[in-house]
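During the second year of the project, the team shifted from modelling isolated chains to modelling whole assemblies. The rationale, set out in the original proposal, was that interfaces cannot be judged from single-chain predictions alone. As a representative example for this report, we include one of the complexes processed in the last quarter. Its constituent sequences, exactly as entered into the pipeline, are reproduced here:
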Amino acid sequence: MIKHALSVTRDGDFAQWYQTVVAEADMAEESGVRGCMVIRPWGYGIWERIQRLLDDRIKATGHENCYFPLFIPLSYFEKEAEHVDGFAKEMAVVTHHRLVADGKGGLVPDPEAKLEEPLVVRPTSETVIGTAFARWVQSWRDLPVLINQWANVVRWEMRTRMFLRTAEFLWQEGHTAHASADEAREEMQRMLEVYRSFAEDDLALPVIAGEKPENERFPGAVATYSIEAMMQDGKALQAGTSHFLGTNFAHAQGIRFQNAEGELEFANTTSWGVSTRMIGGIIMVHGDDDGLRVPPKIAPWQIVIVPMLRDQPEDEAIVDYCRGLQGELAKLSALGEPVRALLDLKQAKAANKRWGWVKKGAPIVIEVGGRDVAGGNVSVLRRDRLYREDGKLDSRVIARDDFVGAAAALLEEIQSGLHAEARARLEANITRVDDWAGVEAMFVESAAKPGWADVAWSRPTGAALDQVVERLKALKLTIRNAPVDQGATDGACIFTGTPAVERVLIGRAY
Amino acid sequence: MIKHALSVTRDGDFAQWYQTVVAEADMAEESGVRGCMVIRPWGYGIWERIQRLLDDRIKATGHENCYFPLFIPLSYFEKEAEHVDGFAKEMAVVTHHRLVADGKGGLVPDPEAKLEEPLVVRPTSETVIGTAFARWVQSWRDLPVLINQWANVVRWEMRTRMFLRTAEFLWQEGHTAHASADEAREEMQRMLEVYRSFAEDDLALPVIAGEKPENERFPGAVATYSIEAMMQDGKALQAGTSHFLGTNFAHAQGIRFQNAEGELEFANTTSWGVSTRMIGGIIMVHGDDDGLRVPPKIAPWQIVIVPMLRDQPEDEAIVDYCRGLQGELAKLSALGEPVRALLDLKQAKAANKRWGWVKKGAPIVIEVGGRDVAGGNVSVLRRDRLYREDGKLDSRVIARDDFVGAAAALLEEIQSGLHAEARARLEANITRVDDWAGVEAMFVESAAKPGWADVAWSRPTGAALDQVVERLKALKLTIRNAPVDQGATDGACIFTGTPAVERVLIGRAY
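Output from the structure prediction step:
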């Protein structure tokens, strides 16, 4: 039996396994500030890769980056009733702008420095960006406005979990204004597709893109679409959302323009976002019992070279050999970019370094000892195939030149292999279910990893939808989305028995 | 006489000119939130270039990026008395985590959701990062810790000015911990040099690196160094700082390690930062009466192609020609990177577009009309040499191939030309002054752009320093820094008459 690097397995306790990977892979840690985490170098390095690759896609679709204030006056929120209802319960509020000594050696907010109007720490920026749009847009010629921002936001969550749900998180939020509802809907779909292809191609994260049901819409939206990823415990993670806001926010913020006929119209707006939550999804989709496996496209370091040093004179030759190797690898190009190769010269035992990089999930770890130098070889460890069939570590001695010649292709193979593995698991764990009894059977208490049910429904609204939501809630289920990629639907709604209009995915979720 | 693009000149009203450039170059605008600005696409694009280039330098010197919480519990601040004294007067304080209806259609902070311990919105992160360092550092083997963070910070300034002084601003803050004071001082110097060379080489911003006097130290620091740039009105802008914190924060946060001999020691720490303030400096150093001039290395677009369209069938050929040109330029490399060329296809008059790009300061604007297409030419406008001697716009018709062949060298010439111009101005406006009467004469009320005085002093401390500071304050002057690059000093201190130990620069400042 294989002795894995982590003290807990996915099958043993998935939640505990997740926390262990977050810690052991140097991703993040508790900060001491309630609900806020410290994102450590390896975790932040992955976020930087996500930023770089997604930002390129956002710019390629014509959007420009801006920066808007962290603080939003209360009055901005009051204008959009649904929106404020959705967020009021979890907003951090700044009320003072100065501290003063409390006379007991401590500090308190200075009562003399109370703000006239409290400021909310942005939970999302529709209101403050909409206010800017109202200034920017006068004529149809000013449209569309296509803006994105990379920022931190705060939602005061009661139960937090690293990356998945934190009081402060990092994200990008796109905001656009258009001359017509059709154009705005097109934009919403375009960005949904940007997210889908980014997740699949860059993160090796298979997702289902689709429309959220009415009860799961973003507060103030006319339609909300999402990409949903399946974790290894079968639960869903909403990994990105794209909203069509109609003219709701334009009415609240006064975004109006003169159309070509000289009439005043309200603009149609959209918003869309992806956050550090995505990193939680990467861990739960690609991790294994030895830690994280980072897809090469987003790995801060794709190839890590560990010299096996022994405090001997021959160490120098080993380090020289490794430097030469690093230089050769850095000249290569894989997955459309220069290869990122690190020479790990930290003061630590080579075996600890090796397992450190395995737990972090560097795609390829190269070990170089005196014997490798003498033979012109390297010892190669692929993170996606760590063990041989007999359970021993699959470290292979390869001629250095052969490895360098094959390295780019190997990284591409690892990227596509991780994707194929996750894609197969997603598909294997979506079950077509024909009636409510089938759903109940699938999600009985004892089911280990039930995955998602794919069911037909009639898209009920109002009270009828509330009933559906309640029935699902009793089984801890939610409707994830109605996939955009689906054929015609026939048969009956599993909830109401009336003719079905579309298929939706049902599952447990993070 | 030249008719310039802006309604106000630098000589006419420098402060008003600055605000005009910020607005007309599409850099930033008031947000409606007190003291906070909206950074618009061109301004944010320059910030993105700054981030990219400075981040490369920070990583090349061995630092890794992390992310720490926005909120800092009050108790973290109370531990370092000088530090909290320095910042308590300008901290935004979060006291509630929920809003509730006020019964009059509005919202108020929910009294039921008052935080037990108020949270400060970070004005700087020594305390929260130091707390993490205390967890990370146990042994000398864990040192040095070399961390950087890109983040927003808030300092509640009473008088704000776009980029130069805003309640919220963006910056990077580096934080490091070391086994010895010498090592930490070396780090402080290393990062000062990173800032100096970054400013000179990437921003074309000549600066003087040196040590701040005791009264200008960062709250809690043992030594503070800065880079100081000279604006076109002769005032100084502190454009970056690097601090040696000794063991002050290590004591407050408990950053201790076991040294090689097994004894417990406190770590020595540093911090260093550069902010969006830098953009204000770029405007005030490189701008002219036609707007901003962006050095090519940090220009979001280095070459902008404006097709002269007339709603005629021939428009299509012009756009095709421009696309081809853009493709050729994008294949070039200048200043170590691929050339960034934009084809501006916005719906607007070509003349308005031209002047828009002039005001934004794109280094090269190419105009293409039907005649250019027919002749295989382009019309080239260099932002650094906009007018001919006779005051007419210096737009030159050049064979397309010749322009493409020369474009990379031209960008490099513009970069070094802007630097040389600013460097010459800095040097011409530093005046060696031998006594206090000379300082008074130099900074009389009527002096237009007095620049800086270079004087010898005895580096007084305590009450003697206070007296110096008061004398300077009466003339609205401050000591900027004691340049690191200076020879031996002789003569007497201009303030005390005692033997001088170093030379310092004195000037008015932003």
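The radius of gyration of chain A is 26 Å. Chain A touches chain B through 66 residues (CB under 8 Å).
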